[in-house]
Amino acid sequence: MAAAMKEAENVIGLEEIHMERQETPKGQKTFTVEEAVETIGFGRFHIMLFLIMGSTGVAEAMEIMLIAVVSPLIRCEWQLQDWQVALVTTVVFFGYMVFSIVLGLLADRYGRWKILLLSFLWAAYFSLLTSFAPSYIWFVFLRAMVGGGVSGHAQGLIIKTEFLPSKYRGYMLPLSQVFWLAGSLLIIGLASVVNPTIGWRWLIRTASIPGILLILVFKFIPESARYNVSTGNVAAALATLQRIAKTNGAVMPEGVLREPAKERRGRFKDLIHPKYLRTTLQIWIIWLGIAFAYYGVILASAELLERDLVCGSTAPQLQDSGDDPESHSPCHCHLFGPAAYQTMIISTVGEIALNPLNVLGINFLGRRLSLCITMGCTALFFLLLNICTSSTGVTGFLFMLRALVSANFNTIYIYTAEVYPTTMRALGVGTSGSLCRVGAMVAPFISQVLMSASFIGALCLFSSVCIVCAISAFTLPIETKGRALQVGITPPGAPVYRNAV
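RE: above sequence
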């Protein structure tokens, strides 16, 4: 029985790596990047890594959340219908979907750092152009280009993952949610001040500043040592590891860095290799569902506030006094007032409300079970949103939904970055992110169109998708908790060796 279990583990284990046999001088010690990262441990370099690469979430959140706070104004300025407002969000994620695959493929071939820098330059450039859009059509096109640039920000997460020792990944990566929260709160706070005074165009210009500033500090973070060694650039990998050890005040392992270059660079067919096929398909389902729920919550929040869709209300409950110039407009649009922005801020803060519990679940229950639980709770709270309640009750439900959907994203990001080997990690994350945007593209039409026609129908659809994702998470074939990161996929017919975990 024990032998059968061990055999099954060898078939589906993460750490099956084909280690080419190399002749080394007798008695000479060698070490791998994985062993070096674990020996050096956590220190000052990783704190700097966390702050700089984590801050990519600030820029990404501001660009993605921007549409939620700009939608009422462009609806008014260009006299848009519901489907036209929804289309703006959809094209952002369409750009994200297309470029996510391309940039993931390029990152596995040419490096994470280069693609991260390129994506920030691209996003900042087109974001600034958006602020000068003369028409709705131009606005839609330019936001699609911004979405394409933002898709490359995921390389920041991959760089963090590949530099962190295994026992710290489950703690440090979820904490990156703080940066997304900071970006979300920052754009809402700016919108409450900028929108009613100098307009949405200046809001977009202001939102571009954090991304531009981040470009200036990327030089302090080197290219991933795991990526360098996977391409055969052992000298660069060794120099990076020595730099990290010096910064942390730690020592390098004894011996020579010896790890064979992987000739097979991230290819799409590797994602559906028999070893990963089931995992890949289930990950894609989960990513799609999580994005559908996450952006559904964000856009539903804006829709509830803009249209005062509070159950049983006969008069606007979230709208401010008629003297508030932001509450009305010449073209009879419902714009956000101070109370609406306050509600958005409160619900957004919910994104870190469950962060401590999420971290504990990820590290003690494992990635799969933790994700299953949070997805199940998300389904429940979508249904609870239909209960007749006050504006305070709606805010409370939105708060919990934001907390849960944020926890879902935390977990699936970590799992996806851990489950794929270095040679295809960026492609795996990029492709998953691309499928994720399909869910994000559909969400606006549910939150901003279907919800107006059938509130309960929209909520039931969101809930059903979350249940499917919970089941998929629970049945994932591989658990990555406590596992070392894999270097390369095992070529068909090659002997299999396992790294120690």
